[in-house]
Amino acid sequence: MKAKEIMNRKIEYIKFDATVYDAIEKMVDKRIRSLVVKPRDEQDVYGIITVRDIVFRVIGKGLDPQKIKVDETASKPLVCVDKDMDIEHIISMMEKFNIARIFICEKKKILGVVALLDVMAGSLIERAKGG
């Protein structure tokens, strides 16, 4: 199975200068666990801010989410792979880098994301097909 077969094309973004509080509101409102942080300029790269980042780097340290910018908390760069990469290789990368999401990119454009849940769903689809 290839990444393109199970990737999620719906990606939520947030501006680099938004506050962590803005990110919390968006994540809770949309019931999602991460946001892609837009680059500051053409020299910058996309980042990601996750629920885990917010809980451990902001809330857990007693920092005020309204005073912290997402760019200060986001992880950069995103881990990107080709749409034709095998799922087994993606799982290996997730385990090696201790991450829950791998982005599918083409040049500088994000095409989609494969999260742990997508991998599990993909395994069910594969099984249903008899694979």
TrEMBL record:
GO molecular function terms noted in the UniProt entry: kinase activity
Keyword terms of this UniProt record: CBS domain, Kinase, Transferase
Alphabetical list of InterPro entries matching this protein: CBS_dom, CBS_dom_sf, Diverse_CBS-Domain
Domain called CBS: residue spans: 7-65
Pfam families (UniProt xref): CBS
Stored Gene3D superfamilies: CBS-domain
Designated name of the protein: Histidine kinase
Source organism of the structure: Desulfofervidus auxilii
